[in-house]
């Protein structure tokens, strides 16, 4: 991901997440949020080590609409993603991308498998936060959100390519 290819200028910041299921190496879910640059404390945190990111990168899921079994499997509890699944980070001056290997966790595989079975019937919102642990990083700042509505993950028709 390059910030310029996304149309991001110096007054904006892009956050991208890529999730790849273990059983489908050619299928990926990618989302990108473009926003004003994060506050200086958060922006500085984005440039830290993998260990820092793994202990602070928090994903907040919410199933807005969908079957009870999916709402129960996903829940709405924030998750420190780097402590649960293998996660890689790619950073640039105006962006950070997170690559999540869903196949590295049996629990994550089961949750994604459940969601896949009902993919055309769920509406999910995901929030991204860097967890604040010191007084100067509280309250936590929401870095971005993305919403997937009735996404057919096994049907690539209608998926708009992110890059040319």
TrEMBL record:
Signal peptide: none annotated. Residues 1-42 are annotated as: Disordered. Transmembrane segments: none annotated. Residues 49-149 form the Protein ENHANCED DISEASE RESISTANCE 2 C-terminal domain. This is Protein ENHANCED DISEASE RESISTANCE 2 C-terminal domain-containing protein. It comes from Tribonema minus. The lineage of its organism: Eukaryota, Sar, Stramenopiles, Ochrophyta, PX clade.
């Amino acid at each position: 991901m390059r910030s310029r290819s996304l149309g991001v200028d110096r007054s904006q910041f892009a956050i991208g997440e890529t999730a790849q299921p273990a059983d489908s190496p050619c299928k990926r879910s990618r989302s990108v949020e473009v926003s004003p640059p994060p506050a200086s404390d958060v922006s500085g945190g984005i440039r830290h080590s993998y260990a820092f990111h793994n202990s602070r990168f928090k994903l907040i899921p919410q199933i807005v609409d969908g079957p009870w079994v999916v709402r129960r499997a996903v829940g709405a509890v924030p998750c420190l993603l780097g402590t649960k699944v293998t996660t890689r980070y790619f950073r640039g001056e105006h962006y950070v991308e997170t690559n999540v290997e869903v196949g590295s966790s049996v629990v994550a595989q089961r949750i994604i498998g459940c969601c896949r079975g009902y993919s055309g019937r769920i509406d999910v919102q995901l929030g991204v936060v860097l967890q604040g642990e010191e007084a100067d990083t509280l309250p936590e700042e929401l870095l971005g959100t993305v919403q997937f509505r009735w996404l057919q993950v096994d049907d690539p028709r209608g998926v708009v390519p992110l890059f040319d």
